[in-house]
């Protein structure tokens, strides 16, 4: 649907992901070519720009911050190719996590308005006709169950994509794992994410966050596990101060943490800390003394932490790192940029040489 009269369209990423030519059709029969301005694959959102210099009727935008269970909803879309279809329902649940087709989605609006394949990217309206969500048919067989991305989050992402074509990488300066039942009981929390490390001089340390804290809430959204925490924090605009609900020693508290930019150097540090390895640049002489026939500097695994993700995967000290996600890396600067880019896809595949053998190691960057 058009969310900006200048011809900007908001839809789901999966709707346009494999498209080679994009066409936007209106109910008066007019068709226009559009281009992709930017995408957020992890959040299943995309912004398009109609290739016509004129004003377009834009959908009236509401807010998803004050929604209530039982509130009426209206879904508009093109289910199974049936144009301009309207279905009605109510809000069944808020902040709903959904796991479908190998992917995880969080903080959805759940409704019993019919949302089927073809509804994806269409608006979910309230009783006043204002957009409160972006319909997303993530459960193809979800009989009587539909989901929508809250419009407040969708617009936050859309404005960032309008401005720069991609989401800015945010640095918080901490890592977390999901709370198990024993840890949750000890802390007095039902669900959440357990802080496992806090970087010095980071936004997290400045906010007062400590290792062992349980994060149970981001603003008004509950945190069920570490994946959901990362999702809720991933698209926060730079400079924004976010309130975290924290449990420490069975005591509830709130902490304000500011979104700071993730530089390529920081991205490398975050990756190495999470995976449990360090990478260093070897001179050609050092590489040759290690048994490699090279004529230029190379990157090598310098250290692998015991019982780390890297150690369990089989990486060893001295392995040469040749590429990250098919991008060749010859210098530390190359490696930092490649890791920063890999974070956007959520996956890093390292091509490594050990002796005369090439191996690939894949890591989930969450």
In the CATH hierarchy, what is the architecture of the largest domain at level 2? Roll
Strand content: 35-45%
Number of domains: 4
Report the C-alpha radius of gyration, rounded.
Answer: 23 Å
Tell me, rounded to a whole number, the average pLDDT: 88
Quaternary structure of the protein: single chain
Query: Which stretches are low in confidence, meaning pLDDT under 50 for 5 or more residues running?
Result: none
Broad shape: globular
Order of strands across the main sheet:
6-7-8-11-10-9
CATH class of the largest domain: Mainly Beta
Return the structural class. alpha+beta
Number of strands: 25
Number of helices: 9
The major pleated sheet works out as: 6 strands, antiparallel, barrel
Helix content: 10-25%
Distance between the termini: 30 Å
CATH superfamily of the largest domain: PDZ domain
Find the CATH topology of the largest domain. Pdz3 Domain
Features:
366 residues; 6-stranded antiparallel β-barrel; Thrombin, subunit H; Pdz3 Domain; 9 helices
How would you describe the overall organization of this protein?
With 366 residues, the chain is of the alpha+beta class. The protein has four domains: 49 residues, Thrombin, subunit H (Beta Barrel); 93 residues, Thrombin, subunit H (Beta Barrel); 92 residues, Roll (Pdz3 Domain); 101 residues, PDZ domain (Pdz3 Domain, Roll). It is 21% helix and 40% strand. The chain contains nine helices and 25 strands. Helix 6 packs across helix 9. The longest helix is centred in the middle third of the chain and has 14 residues. It is globular and about 70 Å long. The mean pLDDT is 88.
